[in-house]
Amino acid sequence: MGGTVRRGLPLALKVIGSFLCGRSMKQWRDALDTLKGIPVDEIISKLKISCDGLEDAHKQVFLDLACSLIPGPAYIRKLYPEIIIAVLIEKSLLFESSFERIAMHDLIREMGQRVALQQYPRKRIWLHEDIADVLTENTGVEAVEGILIPLKSDAEEDTVHLSNEVFRHMKRLRVFIKPYHMNFMHLCAHEPINFLPNSLCWFDWSYYPSASLPKDFKPPKLVGLIMRCSYVVNLWKGSKV
């Protein structure tokens, strides 16, 4: 029964779309009005069945993507194995949009974010209210594997002041993304950043505040290094072998 439900739920979503394809605008609106009667929490709760049935490796990739721990769709296949992406597409947790870009439905994304917060607190940081705790208070940083600097919030301080040791205890950090757009929170460091975890696979820090990367930064699994408009003069001091 459980397996049938897991397979049937994404299929049901596809069937609704297939059923409405080619029908009139009135029929679409009627169907939408019907769907609006279902509470969002109930829909998300049902969608969660698809996530719970994933193998752990697949689930972790799905949650990374749900929490936007990737700079853009074009980079997904650089970070994650093709077989895992294929499984997530097969289970309708992802889909291929135009130009073979990987995309995710908003409700699926919301479900994934809820799972990430409930089952893996502090593993992925992307919410405004958590950034200060992690980057200034160093609260619960040992578990952190991914950080996405969020959009500014009118109600809160939009600049985070970093110590040069901010990443010292983030030994599991895989992904760090500070987007280029100015609408995102600012990161300010008064001293050069002197430590970055070698566990990093993707390091994307626009406006990086130091003149070089830390001397001991030697990440063996790094596949992405993006530093738009940074203050970097040399990637690091001295030579690397």
From TrEMBL:
Gene3D superfamilies: Helical domain of apoptotic protease-activating factors. One of its GO terms (molecular function) is ATP binding. SUPFAM superfamilies: P-loop containing nucleoside triphosphate hydrolases, Winged helix' DNA-binding domain. GO terms for biological process: defense response. The keyword tRNA processing does not apply. Keywords: Leucine-rich repeat, Repeat. Residues 79-115 form the Disease resistance protein Roq1-like winged-helix domain. This is ATP binding protein. It comes from Solanum tuberosum (Potato).
